[in-house]
């Protein structure tokens, strides 16, 4: 086709060749004399044998649809191997077809996929092998494109690097993959903790549980200084980029840990998002001891008042307390349980006369047990931020949204 003497790059057109890479390599080899007639005959003889073997492996060689699918699979397996091993070079791929059997190229593609499937698919320890489902997964991947293979290989390789880095970081603390699997750890949380520990406790030799970790942080808060975070000097070079990528987030978290205005207990609560970012050993007995020790320190100095005990009626669950706090802020009769009728009345009163959140906050500060005041105050403020607009909204004429919110967050009898 004639071309313009000086074509513009923006207007240049190219035809998309959607054939499998094997077909393109075969056509190239025949066109350029890289594949001779004898090799072509051998390819024609080997291909049907390979199709039957693949059909038998994934189903039945006696069904035509299975054979058609097997033809698609074997072509794709050969294409995957040629494109990967030859770097997309058609000349090299054609030479590979001339020098090696068709079935060996198919096996090469299958082996590539088996290695891929055997790689960890998640950074959660214990999810590195899927041998039991390998045939099913191989059936899926044998029909995937080379681009999909490369993307998955890159993803799983990054996961493998994270797992390797985590194992390297826990080695000085006498932990191994079995320990991390048993604890249900993920590689990223282990790496983050492994970056913090040398800074918080340079001489430490044991991986901490939550109470021990809290003790480390509180010691630094008393110093009113911040330790320096850095990559371990001996960290192997291939793992440095993986660990480095998590360092900025750990630096942000460290600043939050060292903020004396931030209570430690909510951060380290087992269900908190912050705790989920770090791997701390589970030691229920130590945590219970720590909890009771904290209560012993706080409770004698700031026990709950009689007013608190009378109004809460010994209820300490979140829905009951939020119901009481909301009644206080609305200037309504103080209850820990609402009926549907009183809940609707409460919403109407809020929309008529408004809320005074500070009344509930003052009640918490004056009457709640000292060990829990910070938690109750945060719980109340969080509820207000998420709920006040709905409770006050004039657009909710029939109170449906407001009542649904109260049923979900507060204590409303069915």
Pairing-aware structural class of the strands and helices?
Answer: mainly alpha
Give the distance, in angstroms, between the N- and C-terminal Cα atoms: 79 Å
Low-confidence stretches: 1-13, 295-301
Compute the CA-based radius of gyration.
33 Å
Average pLDDT value?
86
Helix and strand sequence: HHHHHHHHHHHHHHHHHHHH
Overall 3D form: elongated
How many DSSP-defined strands? Answer: 0
Write structural notes for this entry.
Helix content is 65%, strand content 0%. The chain has 20 helices and no strands. The radius of gyration is 33 Å and the shape is elongated. The N and C termini lie far apart (79 Å).
A few lines on this structure:
This protein has helices at residues 21-31, 37-58, 64-85, 90-99, 102-118, 134-141, 146-170, 177-183, 187-200, 210-223, 237-257, 264-268, 273-276, 284-298, 306-312, 318-330, 340-353, 357-367, 373-392, 400-409. It has 414 residues and is mostly helical. The radius of gyration is 33 Å and the shape is elongated.
What is this structure's SSE topology?
Layout: H1 21-31, H2 37-58, H3 64-85, H4 90-99, H5 102-118, H6 134-141, H7 146-170, H8 177-183, H9 187-200, H10 210-223, H11 237-257, H12 264-268, H13 273-276, H14 284-298, H15 306-312, H16 318-330, H17 340-353, H18 357-367, H19 373-392, H20 400-409
Helix pairs in contact: 1-3, 1-4, 2-3, 3-5, 5-6, 7-9, 7-11, 9-11, 16-18, 16-19, 18-19, 19-20
């Amino acid at each position: 086709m004639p071309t313009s003497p000086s074509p513009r790059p923006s207007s240049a057109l190219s035809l998309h060749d959607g054939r499998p890479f094997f077909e393109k390599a075969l056509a190239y080899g025949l066109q350029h004399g890289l594949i001779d007639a004898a090799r072509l005959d051998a390819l024609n003889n080997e291909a049907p044998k390979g199709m039957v073997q693949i059909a038998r492996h994934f189903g039945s060689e006696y069904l035509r649809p299975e054979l058609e699918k097997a033809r698609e699979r074997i072509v794709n397996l050969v294409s995957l191997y040629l494109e990967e091993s030859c770097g997309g070079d058609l000349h090299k791929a054609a030479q590979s077809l001339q020098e090696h059997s068709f079935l060996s190229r198919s096996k090469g593609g299958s082996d590539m996929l088996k290695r891929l499937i055997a790689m960890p698919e998640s950074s959660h320890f214990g999810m590195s092998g899927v041998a039991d489902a390998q045939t099913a997964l191989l059936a899926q991947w044998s029909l995937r494109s080379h681009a999909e293979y490369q993307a998955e290989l890159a993803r799983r390789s990054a996961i493998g690097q994270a797992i390797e880095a985590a194992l390297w970081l826990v080695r000085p603390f006498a932990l191994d993959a079995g320990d991390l699997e048993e604890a249900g750890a993920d590689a990223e949380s282990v790496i983050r903790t492994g970056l913090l520990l040398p800074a918080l406790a340079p001489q430490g030799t044991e991986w901490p549980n939550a109470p021990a970790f809290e003790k480390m942080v509180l010691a630094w808060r008393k110093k009113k200084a911040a330790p320096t975070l850095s990559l371990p000097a001996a960290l192997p070079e291939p793992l440095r980029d993986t660990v480095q990528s998590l360092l900025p987030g750990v630096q942000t978290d460290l600043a939050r840990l060292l903020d004396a205005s931030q209570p430690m207990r909510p951060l380290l609560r087992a269900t908190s998002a912050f705790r989920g970012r770090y791997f701390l050993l589970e030691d229920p007995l130590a945590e219970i001891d720590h909890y009771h020790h904290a209560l012993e320190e706080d409770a004698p100095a700031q026990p709950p008042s009689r007013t608190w005990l009378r109004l809460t009626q010994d209820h300490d669950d979140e829905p009951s307390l939020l119901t009481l706090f909301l009644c206080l802020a609305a200037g309504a009769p103080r209850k820990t349980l609402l009926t549907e009728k009183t809940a609707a009345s409460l919403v109407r009163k809020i929309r008529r006369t408004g809320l005074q959140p500070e009344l509930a906050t003052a009640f918490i500060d004056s009457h709640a047990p000292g060990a829990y005041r910070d938690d109750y105050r945060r719980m109340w403020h969080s509820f207000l931020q998420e709920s006040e607009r709905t409770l006050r909204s004039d657009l909710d004429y029939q109170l449906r949204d407001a009542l649904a919110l109260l049923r979900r967050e507060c204590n409303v009898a069915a």
